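It would be a great kindness if you could assist me with a short task in structural biology. The matter concerns a single protein, recorded as an amino acid sequence and a row of backbone structure tokens. The record follows directly beneath this note:
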Amino acid sequence: MERGARGLLVCSVVLVACGGSETFSVHDTAIVVRTNAPFAQSADLPVRVESTISAALSYWGGNWDDLRGLTIALESERHVPCHGVPGAVGCYEGREMQVSTSETATRPWRCVEQTVLVHEIGHAVIGDSNHTDPRWMDFGAVAARLQGRRGYGPVADEPCDLFPSVWQHVRGTR
């Protein structure tokens, strides 16, 4: 295991075991965990967040410097406040990003890869609030890179099936 990944894993184990502040950092990007979704309680969350963001950065043509100083909050609510747009499941506003971890009002996503994190990283890298870039409509390459990971259920592991449409928005909305 790479030294950085090992450190992230140890950090996550300590956070989960101690029940302390659920905040960690990945490449100078703060990750705040405000959800009890089973995947967010797993020891591998920092490694999974890092690899998901890395895949997103590669897809969008960005790098970790684009996210330096950013705070990403994983939220338990199905919808997050975003520029007055009702029903938003993710939002990027300057140096803060919110990502819903809930598939429905009562069911959390099974893995961080199923959230709109990849989509919101796109906003951090290229902006494009009107979704005019054609990449918004074809997440197949990044989905293929993240496919095959395990998911977490309330009792046991579940599939972490990716649905690239989860990351898409109708043009003109967030």
The CA atoms of residues 111 and 117 lie 11 Å apart. The beta strands are 23-26, 29-34, 71-75, 90-93, 96-100, 150-152, 157-159. Residues 3-18 form the longest helix (16 residues).
